[in-house]
Amino acid sequence: MAERKGLLGRLFGGGKPAEPAPAPSPEPESTEPPAGPVEATPEFIHEVEHQHETPPAPLEPVASQPEKPRGWFQRLTSGLKRSSDQLTGNIAAVFTKKKLDAALLDELEDILLQSDFGIEMAETVTAALRRDRFDRDVTAEDVRDVLATEIEKVLTAVAAPLTITVSKKPFVILMVGVNGSGKTTTIGKLAGLYRQQGLKVMLAAGDTFRAAAIEQLQVWGQRTGAPVVARPAGSDASGLAFEAVERARAEGSDVLIIDTAGRLQNRDELMSELEKIIRVIKKVDPEAPHATLLTLDATTGQNALNQVEIFGKRAAITGLVMTKLDGTARGGILVAIAQRFGLPVHFIGVGEGLENLEPFTARDFAEAIAGHST
Predict the structure, then answer these.
(1) Which of 64, 78, 228, 312 has the most CB atoms lying inside 10 A of its own CB?
(2) Distance in angstroms (rounded) separating the CA atoms of residues 167 and 156
(3) Would you say the C-alpha torsion 323, 326, 330, 335 has a positive or negative sign?
């Protein structure tokens, strides 16, 4: 029991939180460019941008890409391979047609916790097995069947498409998240998706603290045929957002997607700046932003739970996009987030290409991560 408590402590015990910088005194709605957060310093950009987010290479138009597209389930299964292999390998090592007893259930719970499924899902799965299979022979395949079923139940409740209301011109999507979460790349993919649907899309380079982010969004704009509203690095982000909404309205855009600077969720002054951007957008359209999407990097594991909680409180998150599922064995964190917060999961990403961002489907994800085939 002491060993299990130790594991739970390591998985869920928080370290000493970073001490937040003192919040600045309220500042007037000024047009002066901000000095920029710590996240804009060359040292931080070098650490985050170069370790986590690869700048895009010059891109060919989508139509000239020679690679034959694969089916989405095949790409998803391939993307979730690290998560699936670790999970199913650990299950197979424990369940070798033994009678199901309390010790085996304890081991399964530990396996699910190590895969970042969260305590709620671990307890749900072990309770289902205890109810239906206790003191009976059980195989790894039996466990995977139950796991896939329980995952699908949880995710079905949150799998929801992002519906663009075309009567709202423009339909404003605000993208938020921490540095390195894949915000800008996701915006490019969304622009491509909506352009393929025949919608007129405009982008706004609201990450004004990073010249590389502005350039990256401009590359995506060229690739997808979406105009980009941009200002020089260091400009006021809220002023740019205001300009973008007015311009998108004047030009009859169906969708406006606004990028924002990556910000750590424990920096109060940076979250206050995000709140200011939202206030300014509402001066042009009181109903906007119509969707505020939080991009989450699956490789951050349990830290993603904290991001959802803080961004949800400060920016009124309406939905989630989970990225980089192909770069981690911690894909179970999406299940933990869904079970705890119940926020809609609109899209998941399993690669860098335009075709690697897809609307989220509960059954496909459950089968792929549990090692099933379709």
Answers:
(1) 228
(2) 28
(3) positive
